[in-house]
Amino acid sequence: MDDAAPPVHPNNRLNQLAGNEWLYFTKSVLQTSYPAAYGHDLRRQHGANKPPQLMAHIIEFFTKPGGTVLDPFAGVGGTLIGATTVGRVATGIELNPRWVEVYRQVCRREGLAEQETIIGDCLEVLQRLLAAGCQYDLIATDPPYSIALAKTLSGDRYAAEFSNRRTDFDTFGDDPRDFRNLETFEQYYEAMGQMAEKAYPLLRRGGYLVLIIRDSYQNGEYVMASYEISQRVRAAGFVMKGIKIWYGTGARVRPYGYPYAYVPNIIHQNLLIFQR
Ligand SMILES: C[S@@+](CC[C@H](N)C(=O)[O-])C[C@H]1O[C@@H](n2cnc3c(N)ncnc32)[C@H](O)[C@@H]1O
Questions:
Q1: What are the backbone dihedrals phi and psi of residue 100, each rounded to the nearest 5 degrees, phi first?
Q2: Are strands 269-275 and 203-213 parallel, antiparallel or unpaired?
Q3: Ligand 1 atom closest to Cα of 177?
């Protein structure tokens, strides 16, 4: 029996995937139930950590082995760990030193090679990386979702009843440079646009930017942050290539509008895919 890996097309300059793996990734919906791994017990202190397996899936499609990845909002390192597991080189920027320390602790305990981390405001650090002549094959990141998500996920009236969904969002700092602390949605979209402008020249020509954006429901209205942000990112020069809806199974539903009105349980996130 031939147990060799399926062949990679000789003209494939993007990744190291065989045809069937490539096609699987292009489906516009992804449903996962990843096991808690890679120090999840530590990483879960960060209420918005992402599965390294999800990030590895994205990284494997948009880079070749040994390729370079940048995450401007690195948190406790979902992207960095994902990159390590598939043999890519990553740099993470994170404002809050607490999250970088958790990432390092995870690496030490799990025996994972540590990727480069830079503590600071991504708007300022991206500028510095550009001045230093850095370039990346992929920028993959999961920015703060919106200015007001804290109210939605923690400290709300369902928090006690659904304590398994409680997060540590309340422990996030009040640093004014944190996108989450911006006062209005407009300011938040504006900051995301600035991030995209600064990221653009750091990406190699033809390279991809993947943003994980969660829409929200605020003050009785659906806030389609994914649309607003994609418009800003397009204005920065990127071409929008698609959306992949990610549903990590296990998200609990809450009886928000019941029994009076329709209020969505937003259990998916949007992987917005752009190209330079
Ligand atoms: C949704 S979390 C990212 C979580 C990450 N994907 C993980 O797996 O842990 C967004 C992160 O952006 C950070 N952040 C917010 N504003 C920032 C800024 N201006 N520069 C750099 N990081 C920032 C927050 O501290 C937070 O950790």
A1: -65, -40
A2: antiparallel
A3: 19
Question: How far apart are the C-alpha atoms of 78 and 254, rounded to whole Å?
Answer: 27
93 close to 125: Cβ distance less than 8 angstroms: yes
- The values of phi and psi at residue 163, to 5°, are -65, -20
Q: For the purposes of burial, counting CB atoms within 10 Å of the CB of 156, is it exposed (0-12), middle (13-18) or buried (19 or more)?
A: middle
Structure tokens, 33:
């139930």
38 CA distance to ligand 1 middle (Å): 19
pLDDT tens across 141-151, in order? Answer: 999 987 755 44
Ligand 1 atom having least distance to the Cα of 179: 16
| Distance in Å, CA 95 to ligand 1 centroid | 7
CATH number, span 19-275: 3.40.50.150
Q: Where are the beta strands (DSSP E) in the chain?
A: 29-32, 68-71, 89-94, 116-119, 136-141, 203-213, 216-218, 221-223, 239-248, 269-275
pLDDT higher than 80, residue 157 = no
